[in-house]
Amino acid sequence: MPHLKQLPSALISPTLIFAFIWHLGIPYNTREPSTKSAIALTTSMKNLALYAIVLATTSGLVFGTMPAASALSWNWSYSGTGIAANGTFTTNDTPNDLGFYLITGITGTRNGEIITGLQAAGTPMPGNEPFDVDDLISLNTQQLTGKGFAYSTSEGNYSSPFSASFLPKPGYLEIFSAPTRPGFENLGLEDSELPISFSATMITVP
């Protein structure tokens, strides 16, 4: 008899359950019962029902597949003139209608500075107000949106890579801000907006 744990739940039939119960040695009387044997048969049927309930309840654990991951992991990196950043993303496991996943966590470094946090979607990076980020990433040819994502670093700086489809040759830009003064119109000499090459690959495949 095959081991039940090797069979998918779709193949669990009443016949298989009866065979399993027989294999366990549970008595089952198929003859016309007397009063005494009827009691024994009733008890056996109760036992049978109990085992069937147990099997049905645990079939998802014994026969089912592992649940899908609720989060995905990615490697990402980008570089440009005087810029080198890389790390990992955590995203949700279901893309939107355009194929974009929501970034929920980030780790890594930028020019040796440790990344300390992800800018929340729907809020602007300090130093680039009032432009909100959306924290979306995709496996599409264009992996970021025009809003991009942003993060803070251990030195108190902020960076935001985004897709720049408005350029004569569409690509990616990074805004870097050391936010001593709020607002994108007040970018100082220490701030920059430079072209970058960006890529991200999924580690955990849904």
Q: Whole-number radius of gyration?
A: 30 Å
Q: Name the quaternary structure.
A: single chain
Order of helices and strands: HHEEEEEEEEE
The coarse overall form would be: globular
Number of domains: 2
How many strand segments? Answer: 9
Q: Span from first to last CA?
A: 34 Å
Helix/strand-derived class?
alpha+beta
| Residue share in β-strands | 25-35%
Poorly predicted segments: 1-12, 16-23, 37-42, 48-67
The averaged pLDDT comes out at 77
Description:
Strand 7 and strand 8 (171-177) form a beta hairpin. Helix content is 19%, strand content 33%. The protein has an eight-stranded antiparallel β-barrel with strand order 1-2-3-4-6-7-8-9. The protein is built from two helices and nine strands; from the N terminus they run H-H-E-E-E-E-E-E-E-E-E. It folds into two domains: 4-62, no CATH class; 71-202, no CATH class. With 206 residues, the chain is α+β, with helices and mostly antiparallel strands. The chain has helices at 14-24, 35-62, and strands at 71-80, 83-92, 100-110, 113-118, 136-138, 151-153, 158-164, 171-177, 192-202.
